TrEMBL record:
<feature type="transmembrane region" description="Helical">
    <location>
        <begin position="39"/>
        <end position="63"/>
    </location>
</feature>
<keyword id="KW-1133">Transmembrane helix</keyword>
<feature type="transmembrane region" description="Helical">
    <location>
        <begin position="114"/>
        <end position="135"/>
    </location>
</feature>
<keyword id="KW-0812">Transmembrane</keyword>
<keyword id="KW-0472">Membrane</keyword>
<feature type="transmembrane region" description="Helical">
    <location>
        <begin position="222"/>
        <end position="245"/>
    </location>
</feature>
<feature type="transmembrane region" description="Helical">
    <location>
        <begin position="186"/>
        <end position="210"/>
    </location>
</feature>
<feature type="transmembrane region" description="Helical">
    <location>
        <begin position="141"/>
        <end position="165"/>
    </location>
</feature>
<feature type="transmembrane region" description="Helical">
    <location>
        <begin position="75"/>
        <end position="102"/>
    </location>
</feature>
<protein>
    <recommendedName>
        <fullName>Glycerophosphoryl diester phosphodiesterase membrane domain-containing protein</fullName>
    </recommendedName>
</protein>
């Protein structure tokens, strides 16, 4: 992709205004995560465990039914509703984590109740656009992998655009605007985040998954999965906020401090 000259650039993360500095962004992602690891870990794990437990309670029997192939109606119904539950919960989690990462990046004290309230206030566009993104990416991956990866790249900063800038239902177009001209490095960065998350979740499941092996397909198994997913989602959400901030910086000459009162 060709670089574009930007007005009033103020690089603070390394590199020049026309480069994103992928390594620096990854470093800042983990720096932010470690700085408030308790907060991010608790938020991620609580929400993901809640999703896992609710899925097990309401849809577990249908999803684990040995006769699901011969009587698929209940299985697919449960799959659809479980997926919707997961999307709503994950959307809320991404919103809360984005705001928490935003404050951590600015060096402000944690305000969990503010994050929850602010995320809930935009839960409708967050969820709707998450569903749209999931459907579009699924179709893209089914037809050909490349369209799915393209959609993932173009819309990757929609969540912080919605919760931090209050972009609402324009979150996808705002993400497309911010990533335009930088999509190859954005793609590389997002792929690295996914690889890191897969490794972290895999290592956690390997270490803590003894319960899964001793009690497969039980609520314990779901809780273990929830913990692993919560930790990996927290890191991914922070990484996306760091990317969002860097894109605003190189494209608009604006830092996160310019939005300091957006949800105060």
């Amino acid at each position: 992709m060709s670089d574009t000259s930007q007005p009033n650039p103020r690089p603070t993360m390394g590199g020049t205004p026309s480069t994103l500095g992928i390594g620096t962004m990854l470093g800042e992602t983990f720096s932010i995560f470690v700085s408030r690891i308790g907060l991010f870990a608790v938020i991620g794990m609580v929400v993901m465990i809640a999703i896992s437990v609710l899925t097990f309670m309401f849809f577990g029997s249908a999803l684990l039914d040995a006769n699901s192939l011969t009587n698929p109606t209940s299985f697919w119904t449960a799959t659809v509703f479980a997926s919707i539950l997961s999307l709503v919960g994950t959307s809320l989690l991404m919103g809360i984590l984005a705001l928490a990462a935003y404050d951590a990046k600015l060096g402000r004290p944690a305000r969990l109740s503010v994050y929850i309230g602010a995320a809930l206030s935009v839960i409708v566009p967050l969820t709707v656009l998450s569903i749209v993104s999931a459907i579009a990416m699924s179709i893209g991956f089914i037809l050909l992998i490349v369209p799915g990866l393209y959609i993932l790249t173009v819309w990757c900063v929609a969540a912080p655009a919605i919760v931090i800038e209050r972009a609402g239902f324009s979150g996808l177009s705002r993400s497309a605007e911010l990533t335009k001209g930088y999509r190859w490095p954005v793609f590389g960065y997002i792929i690295l985040l996914f690889i890191i998350n897969i490794v972290i979740a895999g290592l956690f499941m390997l270490v803590a998954g003894l319960a899964s092996f001793t009690a497969p397909n039980t609520i314990v198994d779901y809780i273990v999965q929830g913990v692993a997913n919560g930790l990996s989602t927290a890191i991914y959400a922070i990484g996306v906020v760091v990317l969002f901030a860097r894109l605003k910086e190189v494209k608009e000459g604006l830092g996160m401090e310019d939005l300091a009162d957006v949800f105060a």
